[in-house]
Amino acid sequence: MPIRIFIEPNLNSTKTAAKEIFEILNPSRSNFIFSGAMVLAPTKSCANALSRELANLSMQKFGGGIAGLEILTLEAFFCRLSRHIPSASETERRFALNFTISQFSDGDLPALFPSGIPSSPKNFFKKFLEIKTQCAHAGLSIKDAAKKISESANIESDRWKEIEKFDGIYALSLSKISKKDPADALLEALENPMGNPKKIFLVGIADAPKILFASLKKFEEKGAEIFSLIIANEALSKHFDAFGIPETNYWKDKIFDISNGDVSVPQTRLIQAQNVAEDAAKFGSKAPQTCAIACEEGSSSSAIARALASKNIKSFSPEGEKLSNGEIFDFLKTLRLYFTDCGFDSLKTIVQKDAMLSFLKHKTNLCAKKIFEIIDKYKFENFSLDLKTAMDFAKEKGDNNALSLFNAINSVLEPNAELNSEKIAQILQNLFSKTKTFDPNIKEEAESIFGILCQIKAAEEVFGKTSLAETIEILLNAADKKTFGKIRALDEIQMKNWLEIFWTTEPNLLIADFNDGQVPENISSDAFMPNSLREFLGIRAANARHARDSYFLHTILSSREKSAVKIYAPQTDFDGEPLRPSRLLLQTPKSDLAARAKHLFQDAESDKHSRAFSYSWKMKVPPAPLPACLNATDFKYYISCPFDFYLKRVLKLNSVDEKKSELDAMDVGTITHRALELLAKEDAESVSEEAIFAILKRNIDAIFKSRFGKNRPTPIELQKYFILSKFSAAAKTEALHRKNGWRTICAEKEIKELSVLNFQIKAKIDRIDFNESENKYLLIDYKTIDTAPKDTATKNHYLSKGGEFVWKDLQLPVYIASAKKFFGSENVEAAYFLITKSAEETRIEHYKNSPEAEESAKKKAEEIAQNILDYKFEPSEKSPLESDYPEYFGFASKNLGKFLDLSQIKQSTNE
């Protein structure tokens, strides 16, 4: 049995533990003093601190280091235990899993996959490997666990039989490369562990799997002495087992003396980050030496790091810099998305990456602006479905710039390679070695990535290729587990997770994310391994985690001054999903329980102390030259919002929907316009409704085929059907219009006869018809719209109130004025061709014009032109920008004017 040693909790418990270890080893001056001793620590922070303290003691006494002494985390100990057995790497495991799943067909594993084997079962792979590791830590193989479950008549027995079947094929797959899964290697190593340590020290091991104790027993049988150093007051000795594991029944009901003033309840994790930064800033320049922060790794730690930076506080994570935070890893995620669907949306995302953009600029001599203009044009105007469609269309149009760009992209994404690993390597070499000089971080990242690619290549040669997207997924999965260590600077405040913060020496702690599911960790909702099954199989279950975390909190509090620990329990996460406070916060005296519950579930602090909203910074709007001419449609933009006009026509900012996977209203309108344009050019005479519809249908078929190919997605095909259903009524309307004597004389006609102040006005008219018997011109503007109430054409332009005209749009009045000059005739009218969902509402509706309306429209156009010349671009109160550009202005909610700094463009009027 281990010898238990209790260490009074203090700010540097690892230093005290190191002294105990040093004295027990009782080194002499001449012997190789530390050989044969092993120290097991629960975390990296603890292991590093013990190593540092023991080295200092040895240096002080002997002037030498601690060679021969092994200081290991539990994870490193398990790897050491099985190092003599060839274990598969992360990459090899994933390839073997892919090979294993290929050996089964739909219906082979009905309990595991009731809906059939998924095309990308990565979530199952992750869960399967977790199950193997958990069972191994309990001293069980999958076969052992399945047998135990079957014998108990557990309802999960069918599922576990299939897991066992899958595991058997998986083991055979790995045998092709003469390796075992690390979990199986660990179980095999337990039968005859290598090495023969003379003394083993367990330091603060408060949570450990069964296999640790089984292996220690093996070493003990070989004569090893085991010492358990427990960070606790000796008066609590009866509440720990021989190895220092907290006894569940005592610790899960432990009462804590924490005042409500030391428990903060932020509304969200984002507000939590701001509160943590504010509290850290109270320590001033001494914060890094007097304060440490505990938080969940990932989004929460990133948010807190940003909030600290806003207070000029640098932060440090002992986990080091993750490879997954690097530029190459980020590019690979985009590449995986592209090779999953090969669509134009994901292609555009690749082009936006710095490495690809630099390559394309160098290869094509096109500037970034031109590259994005081409991509947007082929996505939104030409409806390109993929790179090949875009290349074919560029050839057809003779668009040399676009063709050069698409060929350059293709040269990167379609390199010659026999294996996927080689193809990925070629892509990365093209972008990250030829187009930029490696800085140290990218170089180190690249070396790690290419090292994993070598492993993938070896696995491909044994197991065969997977899909390209799956190969990249394997690469990302392996890379995500790698980190680059860095040294903490003196001015950096430490950020650690809940398990690591236990070992920090700073006297003040700010403990964030103190929610159920984090502290204690939630393990009861696992569909494969629920808490009841964990208890049955002997795997550490919820009660044990609860006891461990209760012990941790007690020790953290007892080793520090009163109110030196501040706890934050946010009410919601970053997405607004509700969070529960940790149950540990309810382990308070019964007399205080009601007050504590009221405090934890109070209205959010941010609501109680709300302040008038103000922006911490303003968006500076850059100046730009005014356009030389105005389009007839520009007046509507300016009337709606002058700043919207400035963005669209002066700065030329276009709204882009990156996630669009089907046609929107603008796409449908563009296709409709094109089909009707082709009708006018092909046959402007026929008065047969059937003949007109046949031409429209043929045009739509040709447009969809050229834009989307033959094998079109179902949403696209459905939208084609709906467009055709609208054209049935449109053909009837067109036939009647022609029977009344109207004939199309031109389509998509651009007229530049009109000027307003310094601006030439461009009027691009969808269609111009002429009625010979009436000697009259009709300017038609196509409108695809769901419903069209009476007088839509007129009401879309103006409202008449008490003889005054309130203008919303000047498009048709500008068309009329331009056409009158062009044709030298006053007999010009304008109309909407309304193409609606309802056949009854589909019609050609005339715009109500009058001399008074014309004069008013002229004055309004001159007023707008003068405002543009005077650089008057303040946003309107009801600006559409919050919905059009939510990424820029969505949060400005009715305060857009206060958010913008227009001083630079206003200066343009004086220059």
TrEMBL record:
This is PD-(D/E)XK nuclease family protein. It comes from the Bacteria. It comes from Intestinicryptomonas porci. InterPro entries: PDDEXK-like_dom_sf (IPR011604), PDDEXK_AddAB-type (IPR038726). Residues 631-877 form the PD-(D/E)XK endonuclease-like domain.
